[in-house]
Amino acid sequence: MDAGATLPHVVILGGGFGGLATVRALADAPVRITLVDRRNHHLFQPLLYQVATAGLSAPSIAAPLRQILRRQANATVLLDEAIDVDLAARRVRFEHGALDYDFLVVATGATHAYFGHDDWARWAPGLKTLDDAFAIRRRVLLAFERAERESDPGQRRPWLNFVVVGGGPTGVELAGTLAEIARHTLPREFRRSDPRRARVLLVEAGPRLLAAFDPSLSAKAQRQLERLGVEVLTGTAVTAIDAQGVRLGEQPLAARTVLWAAGVAASPLGRQLGAPLDRAGRVRVAPDLSLPAHPEVFVIGDLACVERADGTLVPGVAPVAKQMGRHAAARIRARLDADSTPAPFHYRDRGALATIGRMAAVAQFGRLRLSGPPAWWVWLVAHIYFLIGFRNRLVVLLDWAWAYWTYQRHARIVTGADAEAVPDPDGPPP
Amino acid sequence: MDAGATLPHVVILGGGFGGLATVRALADAPVRITLVDRRNHHLFQPLLYQVATAGLSAPSIAAPLRQILRRQANATVLLDEAIDVDLAARRVRFEHGALDYDFLVVATGATHAYFGHDDWARWAPGLKTLDDAFAIRRRVLLAFERAERESDPGQRRPWLNFVVVGGGPTGVELAGTLAEIARHTLPREFRRSDPRRARVLLVEAGPRLLAAFDPSLSAKAQRQLERLGVEVLTGTAVTAIDAQGVRLGEQPLAARTVLWAAGVAASPLGRQLGAPLDRAGRVRVAPDLSLPAHPEVFVIGDLACVERADGTLVPGVAPVAKQMGRHAAARIRARLDADSTPAPFHYRDRGALATIGRMAAVAQFGRLRLSGPPAWWVWLVAHIYFLIGFRNRLVVLLDWAWAYWTYQRHARIVTGADAEAVPDPDGPPP
């Protein structure tokens, strides 16, 4: 056993923004850290929609966790999946082993949820992982290919109808980008069908898009989307999704491509922590982000339910997760120093950004509201800046500059064991 | 019906180097062209090993066929898979329809072959498509992850043994790059296992590597590989491959990662053309590349068996396929002009290149033989030059420069529905 084995062991589950921020904030702490993730990479999720819409390749927004942490000598990275947590024994069991901890940070995030309609998942994929992004890319690109192959206009139409469900940032990004692809990227390339005839619908059950933003920005986002060619339907509930398309209220719409951006549910690991959960499955943590009865266990990021002074929840976005990760690290350091003064987590809101398309975005920073090109530039600079790794920033910038001037999207590659693995309404279930 | 419908219809099956060259060489011919491929992209196969070894992302070496051909008004691209050819009716049947042709060019290439041991495919993936490359990337990266997770040195060893079967250009490239990854890219990132202890074996049944090259270059390639840390075993037959590893002659070797670069077989479509085939399933075409009894049907690229004056076969490489494509196009033009003078295909051999690793390659041009850095520079310039699309060239150059100086490989991302989809010797069959 090396000397390090006697140091307190911090186990961190999940290498997203929250988990990674915790690891880094403990770089010079007298602890051994083990970061466990079931994937080998950290994902820059805010740009995942660009992979889904063929604008960026996967390695541009993902980096191996062990590459990111290769210089942090007190951190070990393991590829494994947590099965359960034994809080009394301070032990996490994984698919391929177990680890004892002195401190545990649970940062396993969220996945998409279909609100009791799990059968919709087959027809309306969501966007959380790189594999999700590849699945969406494949469906979108193949829809245009199917339309080109189809000689009967009645059969062709459903392949050119694209429905995005959910008017939050992801839905807005996807719908805006799909409209751009149909109107600008593809038209010259097809001979039999006309991609410009594609309809892109963005459906939101609530009264407005981007509910987390100021209502004036919601209205501006809607106008910018409509200028790009997106049909925006607010106050419209999706009541069914199947092989033929969607039902909007009572109205059926034939659409072969439906994308889900409507709901998230917290990671199921939250259920094992013995603490109360909110409706979305998030863990109601103590003010310092620890579990009420277990000050050595912290829950951070999208898995944590934290209320602000005004009663609203802190949002499930990257800056929150990072701040929570640094807070959990600070609490671990304090406890190592036997300092147990309560230190509640406070989210410092640095603003919110949502992108829509070329030179189209909205942003709010305190009382400042931006939209159109100024918001888009802020969004671009912020996202390039926060991308992990210098190389990625440079390549992403180059890819974007290229895409911007040429309207080309360089990652329009369909792969997958069955390159046509779109569920076929006439075929057997997958 | 538009006026174009009365023009002769040229159907081209396969959008590889051969098929694409045919389409382009017919750009200003009075024909309608339909290019059909089961994938949506042209693949720059000479760099596929870089995707498999995480050095390049897929979009850097692949471009959508319809993007490449968007300005060629007489060409239509369809995504579909040919099922059979009715030579008498001049009709190709596809999975989703059928096309009548006046001229047919069959350029559906080759796939890897296991010489009657199809059960080896599960344990030893080959490298022909992007999906193959992703599968190899996943296995190689996960092998190092498994080694890191494994605490028992006896259990760890097989995860650090890599066997590449086949000493042709692909095998040499894979083995050289694997050794580089183990020795230079990964070491600082692992805490429990040492990637430098990985063994990379290159196994060739014949007496020397790179049999298509001059023997002096084979010897140089072997020395360069050994300097990179590859163990080269020539004259060694692989007699078994299973969950535990390989058998080399009578000697078993425990290895969890075996890559297959040993054999190719021509596309099964060749069997439907009524012409004699060679042992590898290639079609024995007439001297002008047409089918003996069907002057309106041409077979080109890896699917065609063409002898040179000295009795050797023209090799299955990109320059040959391109020259064949241009030849088939010229023959179609001649026949449109009612010119039926025989015009046999002659391969103009512009030389051969094989890369091994950093500053390590071999090249021969006529009597000129190069190895080491000069050959590597020629290889680099040639491959960047021939990459389709300016953007790709620039980004690939940037990626390589970055990888060269930092030893990092930016595409080390493991994806796949089951991120650990390596066949598990203890698990059920896939």
Automatic annotation (TrEMBL), chains A, B:
Q: What are this entry's molecular-function GO terms? A: oxidoreductase activity
**Claim: Nucleus is one of the keywords in the record:** no
Kindly list the residue ranges recorded as spanning the membrane.
376-402
Q: Where is the External alternative NADH-ubiquinone oxidoreductase-like C-terminal domain?
A: 350-401
- The EC number on file is 1.6.5.-
Q: Where is the FAD/NAD(P)-binding domain?
A: 9-325
Q: What family does the database annotate?
A: Belongs to the NADH dehydrogenase family.
Name of protein? NAD(P)/FAD-dependent oxidoreductase
Name the species this protein comes from.
Fulvimonas yonginensis
